C-alpha cells in the first residue's frame, strides 16, 4: 500500500527530508504588523526575526484551511497520515480533522488518520519520522496508527529560550513570570505536558545554565536510551551543536539530528531558542 505523511509547517523537517516523496508540508501563515510571512520554502527567517523585534504587538498565526489539507490528501496514496502541532496551541489539528471528513466523503476507500502531536517543532519531526519508519517496514495502517500513538504518549519535549518576549506578548507566560523573567533576566526551561500544554520545568540565570538543566533531565530520564534526539534551533547552530556534543557524552541516544526552525517555530522559539524532543 502507498502512503503519504502530511505535516503542518510547525514540523521542522530538514530540506532533505522534505524532498522525500512521502512527505508533504502544509503551511501556516504569520502576520507581524502589516507584514505576512508564509511558512513554506519562501520563508525569510531573518526578516521575521527583525519584524518581531521591532513590533510592539505579538505576531499572529493562521493555521491551514481545511481545503489546503484536502488538497494535500488528494495525492493518490492509499494510507494518509497527518501530523499537526498540539491541538491546545493551534487550530491546525481541528482543520485537519475537518479536512479528513470532507476528503473521506469523496474517497471512502482511503484511510486517513490525524495525529495530535501534543508537541511542536522537534516533536513533530520525530513523529513524522516514526510514521515513515513503521509504514516502510510493511505494517498495516492500524498497526502504524497504534505504534505512533504509543510513541507520542512516551515522547518528551523541552525548550530553552533566549528571548521570552513573544511568549509574553502572546500570554503564554503568567503575569508574574513575565515580570520576574524580564526584571531579573531569568531564563526558563520549559516543557510540554502529555496533553500538549506549555509548562515550566526549571529556571536559570543564563541560557548555558538552563541548557545544562535540560541536559541533566534528559540524562536522568531512563526512557531516552536508544531513542532519537531531535534538536531544533532558531538562528543558533553553534548552540545546537554544543548541545549535541554534550548529549553524546552524557546520554545514550541512538541518533541525534539537528533541524532549523521554520516560521511558526521561530515565532515561539525566537532568536536563540532551542527545542528538543526525544
UniProtKB/TrEMBL annotation:
It comes from the Bacteria. Gene3D superfamilies: 3.30.1180.10, degv family protein, Dihydroxyacetone kinase, domain 1. InterPro entries: DegV, DegV_C, DegV_domain_contain. Signal peptide: none annotated. This is DegV family protein. One of its GO terms (molecular function) is lipid binding. It comes from Lawsonibacter faecis. Keywords: Lipid-binding.
Amino acid at each position: 500500500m502507498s502512503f503519504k505523511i502530511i505535516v503542518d509547517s510547525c514540523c521542522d523537517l530538514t530540506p532533505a527530508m522534505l524532498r522525500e516523496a512521502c512527505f508533504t508540508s502544509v503551511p501556516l501563515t504569520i502576520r507581524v504588523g502589516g507584514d505576512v510571512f508564509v511558512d513554506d520554502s519562501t520563508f525569510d527567517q531573518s526578516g521575521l526575526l527583525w519584524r518581531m523585534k521591532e513590533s510592539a504587538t505579538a505576531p499572529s498565526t493562521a493555521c491551514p484551511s481545511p481545503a489546503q489539507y484536502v488538497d494535500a490528501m488528494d495525492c493518490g496514496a492509499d494510507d494518509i497520515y497527518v501530523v499537526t502541532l498540539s491541538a491546545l496551541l493551534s487550530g491546525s489539528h481541528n482543520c485537519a480533522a475537518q479536512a479528513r471528513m470532507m476528503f473521506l466523503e469523496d474517497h471512502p476507500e482511503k484511510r486517513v488518520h490525524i495525529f495530535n502531536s501534543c508537541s511542536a517543532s522537534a516533536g513533530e519531526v520525530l513523529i513524522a519520522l516514526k510514521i515513515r519508519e513503521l509504514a516502510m517496514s510493511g505494517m498495516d495502517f492500524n498497526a502504524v496508527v497504534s505504534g505512533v500513538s504509543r510513541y507520542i504518549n512516551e515522547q518528551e519535549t523541552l525548550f530553552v529560550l533566549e528571548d521570552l518576549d513573544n511568549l509574553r506578548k502572546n500570554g503564554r507566560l503568567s503575569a508574574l513570570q513575565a515580570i520576574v523573567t524580564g526584571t531579573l533576566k531569568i531564563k526558563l526551561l520549559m516543557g510540554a505536558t502529555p496533553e500538549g500544554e506549555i509548562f515550566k520545568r526549571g529556571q536559570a540565570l543564563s541560557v548555558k545554565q538552563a541548557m545544562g538543566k535540560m541536559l541533566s533531565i534528559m540524562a536522568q530520564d531512563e526512557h531516552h536510551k536508544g531513542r532519537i534526539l531531535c534538536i531544533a534551533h532558531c538562528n543558533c547552530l553553534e548552540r545546537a551543536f554544543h548541545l549535541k556534543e554534550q548529549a553524546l557524552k552524557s546520554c545514550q541516544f541512538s541518533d541525534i539530528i539537528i533541524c532549523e526552525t521554520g516560521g511558526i517555530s521561530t515565532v515561539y522559539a525566537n532568536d536563540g531558542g532551542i527545542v528538543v524532543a526525544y
